[in-house]
Amino acid sequence: MQSFTVIFLAVLLANVALRLWLSSRQARHVRAHRAQVPTEFAASIPLSAHQKAADYTLAKGRLGRADLLFTVALLLAWTVGGGLQALDDAWRLAGWNDLATGTAVLLSVFLITSVLELPFSIYRIFVLEARFGFNQTTPRTFIADLAKGALLALVLGIPLITLVLWLMQVTGESWWLWVWAAWTGFTLFLIWAYPMLIAPLFNRFEPLGDAATRQRIEALLAHCGFSSRGIFVMDGSRRSGHGNAYFTGFGRNKRIVFFDTLLNTLEPAQVEAVLAHELGHFRRRHVLKGMLLQFGLSLAALALLAWLIGTDWYFSGLGIETPSLHLALASFLLVTPVFGFFLQPVLAWLSRRHEFEADAFAVSQTDADSLVQALVRLYRDNASTLTPDPLHSAFYDSHPPAAIRIAHLKVQAAL
To answer: What tens digit of pLDDT does each residue of 328-385 get?
Structure first.
């Protein structure tokens, strides 16, 4: 067995073992605290809602573990099992040039993987989410979303893959810099185009109609010096009972979007507080920092791939008998998450730090009690567990645990 094969399998085993251990810790911790609402939430969240959140978390954990084991089996089939090599051999029978063959192979990998993982999506939406009263997606909507998503992936994916492989072929040893520039440009284009061209393909967006809420929001935006293309309400209730709000786009193409489910749940003052938190991300440049971090990590990854392509052990260690640029890229995209997983706690810590900073900004602009009330209501309505395992939360969670976040807000309000 190749040395790199042994390293890959060892890291994969450590990855799976750690994820299953963390998941089991989460399940034990949530189950142990299911019988009683934490003291700080006892007056605002009934026991029935707390137990629903616990059961929802446990159900998602079980599905997540099954999905993990299936994903690992599929990864092994693609790599050391010879799946990538077999797919490449099949496409080479068509007699196409390297560029067309490489594009077909990469698209086939993504398509086959998506189809094989589809049952998990169907189960999550139509069984798990429905069991807890969140699913509003009809089979017709699901199929329509699937078709539009596939078409969009082809329209955007074929030119991008072809461009990347062409750059890898013609730009010499510096190809990874050219590919990085192309990927960065494509990412920026997607961020710019998403609000106006992509999101409306899946959801309906209407200007915020509630006069009282709109007036509060416009006053807050003016006070913060934030300009956007509008304040919109998205028909999130067509698919789910979960509520949310977000910013999208950049430059003059920025939009503020509220799910209709969120507006139906919160009072105007609470909506204003949620928006102030989102504005905190903008004012603290969290979106920009996140983009720069993403671009930096992608540059490092491409530089690593450029080095790996020059080795024999990388290809043979992953079951590839006929090395090529497109198989190097395909295998790298499949294998990188296995090694990159160990960066997860650092990225989660950084995200939680940004959430605290956005909360602090919100408290400086609006009433802290309104933000606390909004968060508690969202925890309740979204069935978010109030008692996550501390280690599991530290490893995965992009937001601070509920109790810690509420306590931190109260401290900020007292300053």
So the answer is: 999 999 999 999 999 999 999 999 999 999 999 999 888 889 999 999 999 999 999 9
Share of the chain above pLDDT 70, in %: 98
Give the CA dihedral 64, 69, 71, 77, nearest 10 degrees.
-170
Residue of 351, 383, 399 whose CA lies nearest to 135: 383
Going from the C-alpha of 129 to that of each of 53, 60, 119, 162, 237, the distances in angstroms are 12, 9, 14, 38, 13
Phi and psi at 11, nearest 5°, equal -65, -40
Task: Report, as residue numbers or ranges, the catalytic residues.
Answer: 278, 359
Pairing between strand 255-259 and 231-234?
parallel
Q: Are 54 and 34 in contact (CB under 8 A)?
A: yes
Q: What is the pTM of this model?
A: 0.92
Contact indicator for 232, 258 with CB cutoff of 8 Å: yes
**Cβ count near 269 (within 10 Å):** 17
Q: Exposed, middle or buried: residue 319 (CB in 10 Å: 0-12, 13-18, 19+)?
A: buried
Q: Check the CA dihedral 393-394-395-397 and report its sign.
A: positive
pLDDT digits (tens, 9 = 90+) for 293-338: 999 999 999 999 999 999 989 999 999 999 999 999 999 999 999 9
**At 231, which helix (H) or strand (E)?**
strand 231-234
Residues for the chain: how many in total? 415
> 192 near 253, Cβ under 8 Å?
yes
